[in-house]
Amino acid sequence: MLSVTINGRAYGPREVRDELSMNDFLREYLGMTGTKFGCGAAQCLSCAVIVDGPDGTSYTMPTCIAPAASFNGKSIRTVEGHAKNGELSVLQKAFIEHFAFQCGYCTAGFLNEGQVLLERLAKKPVARADLEKTIVEALDGHLCRCTGYIKYHEAVRAVILADPGRYLS
Amino acid sequence: MRISRRELLKSITASGIALSVSRLAIAEEPGFAARETMPGRQGWNPAATGVGRIDGVAKVTGAKLYAADFRGADLPGWPQATSHAMLIRAADATHIYTGMDLSRLSGALKPAVVVTADDLARAGVRVPQFYAGDLLCPVGKTPLYLGQPVALLIFEDFDAFDQARLALRDATVLKFGEETGPVKMPNYAAFRFTRIAGPTADAPDVYSPVKNGWVSPGFTESSGHPVWARLPAPTGQAYVEAAAYGEKIRAELAANNPTLLVLDREFETQSIDPMFLEPESGLAWYDAGRKSLELVVGVQSPYEAAESVAYLLGSANGAFKSAHINTNFAYCGGGFGGRDHTPFPLYVALAAMFFPGRCVRLANNRFEQFQSGIKRHAFKMRTQVGVDRATGKIVAFAADQALDGGGLANYSPAVATTGATASLGLYYVPKVDVTTYSFHSRGVTAGSMRGYGTLQTMTALEVLVDEVCTALPLDPIEFRRRNALATGGRTMTGNPYIVSVRTPEILDKLEKHPIWAQRAEEKARGRQAGTLVGTGVACAAKDYGTGGDACVGSVEIAPDGRITIHCDAMEMGTGVGTAVANRVAAHLGRVADEVAVARIDTYGPLALVTSGDSYTMDQKTQDAAARNPRWVPAISTATTASIGAHVGTHAAAEAARVIFRFGLWPAALELWGIAPKDRRANQWQTARWKDGQLVMPGLPSLALPAIAARAHARNGVTGAMTHGFNRWAWSQATFQLAGQAWTADIDALAVRRGAGKYARINRSNVKFPPTDFNRIGTSYTSQCGTVVRVEIDRSTGALRIAKAYSVLECGQALVPELVVGQAQGGFAMGVGYALHETLPPYEDGPGNGKWNLGQYLVARGSDLPLNGLQIEVLPPVDPAERPKGMAEVVMIPVVPALLNAIYDATGHRFRSLPVTQAMIKGVLK
Amino acid sequence: MQLNLRSPLFVSIVILSASMPASHAVSEAASDALASVESFASIGDTAARSAAIFTELGKVLTHPRCLNCHPAGDRPRQGDMARLHQPPVERGADGFGLPAMRCPICHLQANFDAAGMPGNPIWHLAPREMGWEGKTLREICIQIKDPARNGNRSVDALIEHIGEDHLVGWAWAPGYGRQPAPGTQKQAGALVEAWVKTGAECPN
């Protein structure tokens, strides 16, 4: 059985096959294709969503290698949930303003990962000297074939440096 | 293959701009076209103020954009439910295929339809010539290549499909019998390019491809290898003459002349996957009642895809005969060439035809994408260069290139010739002889991919040049200066470039850059720290354009000044929508409010017709055809060959010029109170736009909305639709408009006045580029140079790219941020190609269906100098310089620069790709 | 899976060659067998017998299922080809990965065969001091006995660790697309016990 909260909205309970992946649940059953399918092997993370734990911590998770059933009782955010009332998030705006993406297919994954990083740093800031390394470690699981990554990193860094009191120690 | 005009008009119809309501009456659901028109429903257009791309909001909010995103329920009028299809592909290409065992698929897992080669034959399906080869391997034949599809299975719903997929994973589904070995097929192409310059730079060439035509050898050995020797060709003396000159050049190189340094080296490159993040997929629905086939696909060649599907079904019988094919083209999640002329849409169409009344999805997972997606050709090259020791000038050059084209011909001939004619990079050489051929193999089909053969040949060249410089010795920048092709100089095929040649500036920039200037100190510093430090430099000159590019586009301006653009270029990440909006803005003063790309269907008023093949037709045929004022050599061609800026935006830009000249300008004159006879009335080219205002010296600035309103009110031209064709030069034609003769680089024009309808204006004369321009290798070039510093760990061979600098020129950069982004992405792709990516050919390669990203390593952020890569884009030579293509050139010099840096660090010259950590470790003592 | 051996000779079934990796079907008889303890009875000298038993155990210890997570450095390996793990994950402070890519995020409580994804409730890297990639059997043997490098275990505790630990046990039920370790966990445990009882000798 699967009951899951997606972008604040409850879905289910509904029966799902054991072998159904979460990625297919989102894309085929719910039509939520903002979460992409890139490799099916947790190598590219185009399929990653944000999982919000009950303890207030969040992490990104690839949906292609996880059974939908394993999300039972979980609360997740997808790319469709970042903008609120038509207002783009700070990170979404930064991605646009920095020309961070090109074809855009990996963008949902990068957005989710960047958002989780921002939230993590807001709770546990890092030293400025460690910032670039922290961003690389956070984003390195995500493959992009178009951009060479540089503008994605610039966008995330710009958001952090625009609010150093919140993100840096 | 060209279908008749009538077939064409029947098959290419208006796509879903008319928003028909879906069966469940979801009135708000936008039609496909509305979803793919930017900036989209959210309204904010970041490009309007230059802060972002026109598709920016859609892409950061996960809007449905890609073919992979759509299901029946998303498309008004389509069946709500989606069925799912899969292709069964053969991982054996050396035994006879004897049959299929689907017994595992019982009960709920049973496919609704199984399509085999027999079914295709019965239906009267035809394979377009470009894709010649069985679409499905029939029983009794050895598969032509690894991964060749054998059957198409269609499942009622997703659950059945998903469970079937898993059930088939463990099973031996396909049966094979007698071992035959791989299927032998003739070579895809073979050419010899020979040039002997005359005694002086201005004297006519003694022999050249442009002067004497392109030649191919007439004989092959039993192995399939062409016989390049000077045997009499059955069709005449043409090849013999080229071979005679070619052999003389090689004899000169072999003569042991002490005044020459002659290096003779082999270089081998690997097969590569474009690895665009969105695997190929498509959606289709055949409405048997209306005999109408609807398709949603994401390809780089929309017109060709529509044509190919029309041909596929063009003489199908009975239930498979459609009267109407409507193809909807989506944004693509990457392309890099791999989505250009791909056979995938054919299978999508078949899935619908064999399951009529249903919406069917066919999609590759990543294993299948590796197994069947277009690959980059692996090259084996032998290159000989003869350099005068005293002057450091290259006096003679010879090369032999062999390309593994894999299972289907696809673009193999074009990749061979493009790679061959780029073999000299940015150098001038008076005596050149290059042979090239591409052959069939049982590997996965190779075709178009970023660089298109020139990446391979110029990597071999620039590594060889580096070795020449070490051997002479001569400073690598100075060597390039001495040998650079100058403006007006003749390329390998014997023609000069018709655009700027900026080698001296590129070289100056490289020489002055600290990475290059400080290479000796950095090397020494590395030695002290126990690290091997090396610096490498390389340059590339890449053509842009294919010699047969066509574009079609339209622009409209509303009474309030809002601008709408349609163009046939497609979006795969390059940002062509934003680029075309910027280029039009230069003429109309405002970034477009709506841009629809990949539209091949909204140009009915032009009533274009075409015939023949623009690459092979002779002058007489072209002249006769051109007498029809509606005839053009090609209607719309692929978004490829770095042509987005140069071709993709051209038709819309020319449309915008017409609107300005015959719509906005006369309206502005009226607002200024300037009479038609006034001298200033003709000075429309002096006017400039600034912040949405039209500025003329000595006159008050006018805001665009006011001008647009007046243009509408006075029934001026408020919309224009144009077509352009480029065969190494633009077609030119003259049109009578408002009593004026308007001559421009277009060959078809329709205009709209006020709120009226479009009306054709017949051209009063036209000059198409001569057909013998097909002998040109390229007339367009852009250049890029890269210098890179690497640090190699002595104990592990691990290589770190410490810093890099790429300098390029691209004429007018329509969107500077996009140019830099392309250069950064090209750098990353070059790093992957040089150091990480490789696919074994044949049974161990991706044709076996087992490859994914765990084995195929593309560059990650941590592989790149994220904070150490500097990109510099030279400004245009003058403000009027047109945009050049640069998306490929920015990848090329990175590769040899890395190899040259590795040599500098280790003393070892690698002559194959990729150069992995293990290989580097292997040469370290 | 229990092999029923009636003779000292054991049947060895060749593992698939390295060029046919990962997603090949796991057939019922595909994995190597492990010799039974009894089959070593013919070796008279106790020390020699002990070392021989450890050599047999070495088939398990050096199999990719074990070696991939006992690497020399901080990066695990992956698959039957034991290539470097992609995406590039690292041990991190606690062996469960760096903050952005914790092992349990992808490696869930159990294998997810539909995606070929291995899983276990405590999926993580063995500590650095327990890495034995690239070492000889003798070196591994010495290391595995050393309390400073084996998690402060006595040799007796190794019997339970190898014979019954749940994560170790995953090696014999690794899920779709992966060759199990040779024999069974019970058989491996029996070998450890016999090795310990014969003095836990190391091979040369």
Structure write-up:
The complex is a heterotrimer of chains A (169), B (925) and C (204). Helices cover 34% and strands 14% of the residues of chain A. In chain A, α2 packs across α5. Chain A contains 6 helices and 5 strands, in the order ββαβββααααα. Chain A has 169 residues and is of the alpha+beta class. In chain A, strands 2-1-5-3-4 form a 5-stranded mixed β-sheet, with helices on one face. Chain B is α+β, with helices and mostly antiparallel strands. Helices cover 27% and strands 22% of the residues of chain B. Chain B is built from 24 helices and 31 strands. In chain B, α17 (576-588) runs parallel beside α20 (650-672). The longest helix of chain B is centred in the last third of the chain and has 23 residues, at 650-672. Chain B is globular, with a radius of gyration of 28 Å. The N and C termini of chain B lie far apart (58 Å). With 204 residues, chain C is mainly alpha-helical. Chain C has a domain at 8-69 and 130-197. Chain C has helices at 46-61, 64-67, 103-106, 137-145, 155-164, 166-169, 185-197; strands at residues 77-78, 83-84, 97-98, 101-102. Chain C has a two-stranded antiparallel sheet with strand order 1-2. Chain C is globular. At the A-C interface, β4, α3 and α4 of A face β4 of C.
Q: What is the secondary structure topology, with strand pairs?
A:
The complex is a heterotrimer of chains A (169), B (925) and C (204).
Chain A: E1 2-6, E2 9-14, H1 22-29, E3 48-52, E4 58-62, E5 75-77, H2 90-97, H3 107-123, H4 131-139, H5 150-161, H6 164-167
Chain B: H1 5-11, H2 32-36, E1 37-38, H3 56-60, E2 82-89, E3 95-100, E4 113-115, H4 117-123, E5 149-155, H5 158-169, E6 174-179, E7 189-196, H6 209-212, H7 238-254, E8 260-268, E9 281-287, E10 292-297, H8 302-314, E11 324-329, H9 344-353, E12 359-363, H10 366-372, E13 378-388, E14 394-404, H11 412-421, E15 431-439, H12 454-471, H13 476-483, H14 503-512, H15 514-517, H16 519-529, E16 531-543, E17 549-557, E18 563-567, H17 576-588, E19 594-596, H18 619-626, H19 644-648, H20 650-672, E20 688-690, E21 693-695, E22 702-703, H21 704-713, E23 717-726, E24 732-737, E25 740-744, E26 748-753, E27 758-761, E28 763-767, E29 781-793, E30 799-809, H22 816-836, E31 869-874, H23 894-906, H24 917-923
Parallel strand pairs in B: 2-12, 10-11, 14-15, 18-19, 30-31
Antiparallel strand pairs in B: 1-19, 2-5, 3-6, 4-5, 7-15, 8-13, 9-10, 9-12, 13-14, 16-29, 17-18, 17-23, 20-21, 21-22, 23-26, 24-25, 24-28, 26-27, 29-30
Helix pairs in contact in B: 11-12, 12-23, 17-20, 20-21, 22-23
Chain C: H1 46-61, H2 64-67, E1 77-78, E2 83-84, E3 97-98, E4 101-102, H3 103-106, H4 137-145, H5 155-164, H6 166-169, H7 185-197
Antiparallel strand pairs in C: 1-2, 3-4
Helix pairs in contact in C: 1-7, 5-7
